[in-house]
Amino acid sequence: MTVLNDDGYRVLYYESKLERCCATIMDASPAILRIHEQVAFGWLDRGAARTHYFDFVVTKKSGGRAALIVKPEKRAHKPAFLKEVREISEQAVQIGVVEEVFVYTDESFSDVQLRNAELIRSVREVDIEADRVVADLIKGLQGNVRIQELVAASRLEARGFRAVVRQIGTGSLEYDEGVSISRSLEVAKSRECNT
Fold first, then answer.
1. N or C: where does the chain have the smaller number of CB atoms within 10 Å of the terminal CB?
2. pTM value?
3. Domains in the chain and their CATH numbers?
């Protein structure tokens, strides 16, 4: 289980290490508003009523919903599994339960993405002063800048670093998600903040 902070604290349960990794990455994503686990979906299998439990259904900040089926890579390519997923996906999308269904495997993310997500989740506790100072610095940001430069300009050292990471977590700062978040990482003001 893990604790989420979406509309107040709540516990999210998972059944495997892979589901924990998926939940961690989804929870750290600025595009995801809410995550629900083990969501039941009734579907027809050659006319017979069956129930599938999506491992996660995420609500995006854009308003759409997506279902995730979490499976180890070695099991995700079996013909019977793929056929069932295709039928479930078509029915779920057709009736409007979700807009899309994804199979999420251990190949769907990198160790760097997982470490970044864990870092983002670890610094979520609000620091009003540091968050305000860093948000003000971002307003005037032009082009790329290293995190260390923002931290130095904030004059808040570790608090400043955590505030910058929180801004990454909210989507106010963009970065190359294939690179570990560190003081040497280059970030830029999100295109959404520029509009």
1. C
2. 0.89
3. 2-108 (3.40.1350.10), 112-194 (1.10.10)
- How confident is the model over 15-71, as pLDDT tens digits? 899 999 999 999 999 999 999 999 999 999 999 999 999 999 999 999 999 999 999
Q: What does the angle CA 42 – CA 48 – CA 51 come to, to the nearest 5 degrees? A: 25
3-state secondary structure of 159: helix
CB contact set of 74 (below 8 Å; sequence gap of 6+): none
Neighbouring residues of 27: CB distance < 8 A, sequence distance ≥ 6: 2, 4, 12, 35, 117, 121
Q: Give the span between the Cα atoms of 100 and 88, in whole angstroms.
A: 11
How many Å apart are CA 75 and CA 19, to the nearest integer? Answer: 15
